[in-house]
Design brief:
Largest interface: A-B, 38 and 32 residues
Distance between the termini of chain A: 49 Å
Number of helices of chain A: 13
Helix content of chain A: 40-55%
Mean pLDDT of chain A: 94
Oligomer: homotrimer
Largest sheet of chain A: 8 strands, mixed
Structural class of chain A: alpha/beta
Number of strands of chain A: 8
Low-confidence stretches of chain A: 1-10
Strand content of chain A: 15-25%
Shape of chain A: globular
Chain lengths: 281, 281, 281
Amino acid sequence: MKNATRRGASMKQIHLTRPSPHYWRVTFNHPPLNIFGPEMLPQVNEIITAIETEEQVKVVVFDSAVEGFFLIHLDFLAKLDDLAHLPPGPTGLHPWPEMLVRLSRSSVVSIALIRGRATGMGSELALACDMRFASREKAILSQFEVGAGFVPGGGPMAQLSRLMGRGRALEVILSADDVPGDLAELYGYVNRSLPDADLDAFVDALATRIASFDKQTIMDTKRLVNVASLPPDMEFESGWNACVASMARPATQKRIKSLIDRGFCKPGDAENHLGDFVGQL
Amino acid sequence: MKNATRRGASMKQIHLTRPSPHYWRVTFNHPPLNIFGPEMLPQVNEIITAIETEEQVKVVVFDSAVEGFFLIHLDFLAKLDDLAHLPPGPTGLHPWPEMLVRLSRSSVVSIALIRGRATGMGSELALACDMRFASREKAILSQFEVGAGFVPGGGPMAQLSRLMGRGRALEVILSADDVPGDLAELYGYVNRSLPDADLDAFVDALATRIASFDKQTIMDTKRLVNVASLPPDMEFESGWNACVASMARPATQKRIKSLIDRGFCKPGDAENHLGDFVGQL
Amino acid sequence: MKNATRRGASMKQIHLTRPSPHYWRVTFNHPPLNIFGPEMLPQVNEIITAIETEEQVKVVVFDSAVEGFFLIHLDFLAKLDDLAHLPPGPTGLHPWPEMLVRLSRSSVVSIALIRGRATGMGSELALACDMRFASREKAILSQFEVGAGFVPGGGPMAQLSRLMGRGRALEVILSADDVPGDLAELYGYVNRSLPDADLDAFVDALATRIASFDKQTIMDTKRLVNVASLPPDMEFESGWNACVASMARPATQKRIKSLIDRGFCKPGDAENHLGDFVGQL
């Protein structure tokens, strides 16, 4: 089983490795941008299903193998026709918000190790994790969507409001601007920002530590934090529906087309300075 | 319409200007204290009604033209007999909490630019805004009311509990003390405190940026943050009722009278050091 | 009554003193560790009952007379057979979470002055207080329980999720690690961390200040913050039940025994470095 996964990994953009049976690692490797192609959706689903079903795993760390990017937004240059019409999952949610909710609710502890840009779906994936640690120098988080004319689809309205309070959540989402490591820590967007040189060792030590604890105790404790802190699924559903509705409007399509004409979704200034880029339209 | 408003503005304490059709500015100009006179209540109502009804506006910034004061508490030297008995608005709330709730729920993005003192109604107005940015050197926020013997009427119990958590909210409200820029940022009372020299340019750039985005997208996104973050109206109603009840108690009337005898509501040490002042009674 | 309490105090581990009728002090004095012996449960109950029933008291400060320790976890070396089976209090909760809830709901303002270690029940008691101020150099907070194999019983899942957001709450509880003063302030675990030399004067001034305000106003205001911020009792009940269930599992008993064999609950490295200690098992 381990070997099969390893063989398959090289053909995918998301790699699952197992430093130990209790501690897994999920690495985004879709150079040069770690942009979210529609083909990655079933890969995320496969990994979350493995997390949900393999009994020994206690901790999973999400990180990136691509310089400058943790995981970014949907690839608007790919064929997206089917994406909005994927059949809902068991909860009734569209597969993307459903996967996010499943990750948050799973009994495994998930940690996002954020180095480089995490925007759009990348930010949403990080927010669905149980904890987020960022490189002080190299992490940039954002929800850029409002700047591109559409409502974010993976629930940052629900998540950020609860993590950082209404005022800062509205600023992050409505400004659609880049949030560097220091500010992300001040706002509670991430647990902590650490010096880039210390980040890997810190996260590895934390994951190893939690993986040494009793799984049943971890599960029962996390379940009670979930009761106190997770948004109701309904808010993810409303967010997704608002996203789909906004995408269908001609004004949005025009805005996205204009962004694409100027370099959106391609390596270069647009993606390297996405906050500035959407503010200049 | 623009000219009419501009002509009218000079006779009022609250000025509405329109740097652009998408970006408005509301400036408190009631020297020397920017104290909240009862005559300002219909002016606030008029401005919030304009914000609710004019279709093009996307962002409104609230600021002050008075040195040292953003906007402070009710003027207890004015004739206040009618204030507690104003007829309720459409939501059933008293006009003051109703206006605050309407501002928060409006589809326009509201930003408080806080330089000088924001206490009592001034703090409550800032809390009803979607975002708050403060001068690190010159902003002081507070809810001084408990120190003057009465319960705050505009809902800071509901708002601050959600913005900064129970412990810090209880400290701010029950200590009734001044909160300077640095601490306001640490506690999440404001989004950020900026060096005074940078504050105006920062807020103007943010407002201009958001005003360049699509209005429908802003509206739909803000509505979902509201679902996740706004207190139920009922908490504003309970807060207002507790305020009115506390005002009617002889002990409170005596305390307020004693404060007035010592300079409350007049220019000078009382208002310049309100935190110390209410703590010395 | 005052004299009686003072005479009794010397035979107890928890001392109640009354600097003034409005301002009380509760001091944990159970050297060398301020460990929570089962005999302290009725003492806490007695003090909370006094807080609830004496009409003049407005503020109570909880502090420690033991160097290095504010208040720590249950003494697993004591006879604990009866503890899990104590009859529930009036709310239906087990006496420990019930006392915590009663303290939070009481009309008196409670302030934890944290110097030294506050872990387990000590952290839970601090979280039940209305405010928490910590020594920047000498305070260490933690919920170590998951590292010892059991679910915390006094509701930190409910409390910390609301104070610091889901991500940081999960880190604090699931890492089971020490949280020093600086980090406790960044995360909102405490209101503020102050230089150790300033802490006593700061808390005393704040307590004296609030004790000078009107009791009815304090009560009515706190009640409204409670509405906005207190977890439902049900979450404390679920947390307690999960704790009891986890304690009954052989894996947990084995883990606790192993900790005891290595120095847990005794003066020395285990308790002085509890975070490291539970991580090395």
